[in-house]
Amino acid sequence: MRITVRREDDYAAVDVGGSIDLASSPELRTVCLGLVRQRQDKVIVNLADVNYIDSSGIATLVECLKGLADHEGRLALVGLGERARDVFDVTNLAPIFQFFDTEETAAREMR
Amino acid sequence: MAADRPGGRGDFELRFPSDPKYIAVARAVVEQAALAAGLDDKGTHRIVLGLGEAISNVIRHCYGGRCDRELLLRVKIEPDRLEIQLQDYGREVLPEELHERYRDISRPGGLGLHIMHEVMDEIDLTFINGTGNCLTMVKFLTGARESRPAGKKGTAS
Question: Rounded to two decimals, what is the model's pTM?
Fold first, then answer.
């Protein structure tokens, strides 16, 4: 898994690539919960280059979503491919997330 | 790992360590087997997902996160089904544990089991004294599913 954090003017963007599974989700969790602890109010996670995500990755994003919501922050997921999106559908957790095609759209909608 | 394909059949075995970094290796084997069995991209991904969740559960719950144990993966391609067996050598998993499902996002820990039940047509668990658990997951292939006897999805023995 590859993961980088970018600080934009009014949000933090997390670019993730590769596989998010039991081996790699702890790193994603560390990054996401770090942003929660910093009380970042808008976080955009770019999953365009993610080819696999399992329940540990979904659980990490749920934890991030809830952590951000605790201080009225928001999480947006962008660029999901069919496989990644399917996992959210299988778990019935798609309705609790906000999905956008692009980071620009997500940033605009979160203003 | 050996392949034998008379009439579209194939049998594969992979023995691998319980280190999470090797889950991807097992996923790759099953992905290729599912494609060879004729599943489409979505069906293949779902099989791979189910296997990944099963392995993760073994590592976390049977092996307590230890990376130095072993798992044995068996994949069997039949004309009407793809059968995946995962053998571990850890503590016994009770059938009722296999049926634990997550209820809401306040407890996402049961997500893996939920996924396994959603993506597979049959799940069966047996414990072999002195050995460990053997999880069998079956996906019926297109056309065979409609002709199979009606039964409860996700049975466990």
Answer: 0.88
